[in-house]
Design brief:
Oligomer: single chain
Helix content: 55-70%
Distance between the termini: 16 Å
Strand content: under 5%
């Protein structure tokens, strides 16, 4: 949380958005908390490497764009390392 101060706020906004749309539960085909956590972490790490700084609303839109349009799923996977 110290490295990515926007992480908490993005997680809250996205979890609320998913819940409102009925996509917050994994057993019904939605996105669970751990997967959302992993996706946010990968996104924020990538933005930090690119030295891109955005407002919270821009981050939310770019996060959605990152996973819906930009990410090439045939070459890139979501992988979170603990070390």
């Amino acid at each position: 949380m110290e490295c990515y101060p926007e992480f908490r706020y993005m997680a809250i906004v996205l979890k609320c958005t998913l819940k409102v749309r009925g996509l917050g539960e994994t057993y019904s085909g939605g996105l669970g908390s751990f997967l959302l956590f992993s996706m946010l972490l990968v996104y924020l790490r990538d933005m930090q490497k690119r030295r891109k700084y955005y407002t919270l609303s821009e981050h939310i839109l770019r996060f959605m764009e990152y996973y819906a349009i930009i990410n090439d799923w045939s070459r890139k996977k979501v992988y979170v390392s603990t070390g």
